[in-house]
Amino acid sequence: MPFFGDLTKLFSSQGPVNWEVARQIATWTATEGEPEANVDPLERIRLEELCRVAELHVADVTGLSTSPSGRRVAVRPVGRGEWAGLTLTAYRTPLERLATSLGQATVDAADPSALGEDELEQGQAELLGGFAQMMSPLLLGMQSGFMVGHLSRRSLGQYDLPIPRPLDEDLTVIVPNLLAFAEDWSLPPDDVRLWVCIDLVAHHAVLAVPHVRERLEGLLLEYVGGFRTDPSGLESQLGSIDPSDPSSWERTFGSPDQVLGAMQTEEQRRLLPRIEAVTAVVEGYVDHVMDTVGQNLIGSYGPLTEALRRRRVERNDGDRFVERLLGLALNQAQYDRGARFIRGIVERAGEDGLLRLWRSDAELPTPAEVDAPGLWWERINL
To answer: Which H/E stretch holds residue 128?
Structure first.
């Protein structure tokens, strides 16, 4: 990673995260330091054709707008490096909220007024606080870059994690990952392309519903703002870095526990059930739409879906960092929980019953109702 030779870039930042370092590390991790070939223009043509098919069928099944920004949804085939750069921009708000939260915790922990009259003790606290504040943008930039770079190596599109993205953003598909998956599982590439398009359009439509978007964004930002950390851990982290060995930087900051290793706060523990309830319902509903639409359109839908749904619960460093960062523990139990809730509503009220989820914030289920769909149905019908 040659940019580590430029100390000015490393320690200069105009905000709580060093975005230049984040961008370069994300690109380097995504491409493994190699030049990235341009995506074949024919991929855009084929994906746009399949996206139109997905839009029509998803809109028909859900009754939701697939063009929430007012313009027609566009699909954008990208490489891993380009996707990493776009995703860093999309995740900017939660990452800066995290940086602000950790930075304030560092200042509080190093406040010399809380240490009595000992001048040496106060001086050490001031030095530690100043050093931690100087290092914080760099560390968060590095961690964010490694996180997004790792995600880019396994994601198929922008909604592998159900995090709202800008409504006017094109739907991105990571073509090298899509083609590699099709080849590894001996599946028709067009079947995989259509599956990914349906999944993207369904997620885009649900996460654009105003009260769903506001609820999820609010919970995720509140969770990120609850982090507290011990600045004394910086010394042990930095001691393991060998400036001449780029891999030592990744070993140190590529793990989710390095920056988020502090104990989870009580505030965050209270938020988790609410985050898990919303994400379980969103994922359960999207899976239901996928099954309804995909079975009629995709010849290899059965084995393709089995392979992709098994793949999504495999975790890497990037996934674990996002889970720790946002409280998105998307394991098999969470997906099964969402599926049971959706199935329970369909059994009681048919497909029309599901439309009630998207009418108002008050009609989103509570954590207890996700596990007992009958309670939700009774409440919203009162």
So the answer is: helix 119-152
